[in-house]
Amino acid sequence: MACEGNGISDERIGEALIKEVIKEELKDVSSDCPPLTPLAVEVKTAQEQKIVTQLGIMIRIIGDRVKDDKEFQDAIDGVACCPGSKWDRFKEVAAKVFQHGINWERIAVLFYVAGKLAVRLVEAHLPQSVTDILKWTVDFFKKNLLGWIREHGGWINSFSDLAVASMQGVSSLSSHSYGLIFIFVAGLAIGSFITWRMTKH
Question: Could you list the residue ranges forming a coiled coil in this record (predicted)?
Answer without folding.
Answer: none
